[in-house]
Amino acid sequence: MIVKKLIFVLILAALVLFAGNCSGSGSTDTKKNEKKQTNTNTNTNTVKTEKANKSEKNGKKTQQDEKEKDEKKEKKDMDKDADTDAVPVQVINPYYGDISSSLLFSSNVDAEEIVDIYPMTSGIIEKILQDEGDHIKKGDVLAVLDDREAVINEKRAHINYEQLKMEFERQKAIFEKQMISKEEHEKLKFRVQTAKLDWEHYQLLLSYTRITSPISGVVTKRYIKIGNKINTSQLAFSVVQDKEKIAVVNIPEQEFEQLFLKQNAVIIAGPKKVKGFVKRISPAIDPESGTFKVTIGVKDNKNLLAVGQFINVKIIKKVHENVILLTKDALLYEGGKVFVFVVNDENKALKKQVKLGFEESNVVEITEGLSKKEKVVTAGKSSLKNDTLVKVVEPITT
């Protein structure tokens, strides 16, 4: 009985001890689980905070980007509006160069020597050796007439002269021996001289069957044809000495004191320009026109000008070297004054008064009011006022 009670007590104590251990283990696990849950919650909150911060940062960046984009768009719209309001213009820069004061007149190219050639005898044209445009020298044969009759006459005269000459030589020996009279000797001498003259005369007539040029130059006109009969009153050729060309101009008497010999001139024929000089000045003034005659020598070594060609003659009075030049289409005339528009760094047109010097063709000398670096408006200036906003455009090329 006592033993049974003892066993019961031991079993009960063992159960109590086992229950205590299980309780302690459960508490520990619970604490561990609570700690793990706390750490998980902490990590979750940290991630959420980081995401929130990143999202906030991205939001701020997006707002800033959108703001910059809006500002760029606004600026672009303003520039577009400014371009729409700006007046389109074309500009050029003044430049340095030489310009002259001159007298300009119209004339025609002429030649110092122009020859119309007529035949010296009549006959049938047998050959034509030179034609229009051919360059020839003095004495060159231009055409040949039928010379058969002239050749016969020349030979006959030559034979007659030689016969009389031989007879005179024989008679001279007899005369020296005083076997004939002086009178007979003199008669034969005169016959020899006459025969010589006849021979030379027929030689000359034979040479007339060759039409020759009395000057060097170029054939400008041929009037004859092969087979035609020609006489001494008919024109055969025209020849011009093309190396010494001239131009004659009539200048108002007010300029008489401004001209002098060898004064420089320029001959203008379209795009061609040839140097010239004052060759002759007439001392007489025409009372009807009030002008005096001036002959301009033309230095046409390359033969660029043709005789008879229409030209402009510019006689140089004075030259200004290395001065500021500008095209005339940039100028504005108001109230007797001259103005230009220049474009500044802000693309605004500013009106400036300028003073002019020499003028030549489409170019003028600027003596005051401009520098080489300035941009001067040439096209579009009629729409401008002082301080007008402009847009510089390139000229349209075709």
Q: What's the short story on this structure?
A:
Helices cover 35% and strands 37% of the residues. The chain is an alpha+beta fold and 398 residues long.
Overview of the molecule:
With 398 residues, the chain is an alpha+beta fold. It has 3 domains: 1-82; 92-108 and 244-392, Elongation Factor Tu (Ef-tu), domain 3 (Beta Barrel), CATH 2.40.30; 114-240, RNA polymerase II/Efflux pump adaptor protein, barrel-sandwich hybrid domain (OB fold (Dihydrolipoamide Acetyltransferase, E2P)). It has helices at residues 2-85, 148-176, 182-207, and strands at residues 87-92, 95-111, 114-117, 123-128, 135-136, 141-145, 210-212, 217-222, 229-230, 237-240, 245-252, 264-269, 272-286, 291-298, 310-327, 332-334, 337-343, 348-360, 363-368, 375-379, 388-392. Strands 1, 2, 11, 12, 13, 14, 15, 16, 17, 18, 19, 20 and 21 form a 13-stranded mixed β-sheet that branches. A 4-stranded antiparallel β-sheet has the order 3-10-8-5, with no helix packed on it. A 4-stranded antiparallel β-sheet has the order 7-6-4-9, with no helix packed on it. Helix 2 packs antiparallel against helix 3. The longest helix has 84 residues, at 2-85. The chain is elongated, with a radius of gyration of 58 Å.
Spell out the blueprint of helices and strands:
Blueprint: H1 2-85, E1 87-92, E2 95-111, E3 114-117, E4 123-128, E5 135-136, E6 141-145, H2 148-176, H3 182-207, E7 210-212, E8 217-222, E9 229-230, E10 237-240, E11 245-252, E12 264-269, E13 272-286, E14 291-298, E15 310-327, E16 332-334, E17 337-343, E18 348-360, E19 363-368, E20 375-379, E21 388-392
Parallel strand pairs: 1-21
Antiparallel strand pairs: 1-20, 2-11, 2-15, 3-10, 4-6, 4-9, 5-8, 6-7, 8-10, 11-14, 12-13, 12-15, 13-14, 15-19, 16-17, 17-18, 17-20, 18-19, 18-21
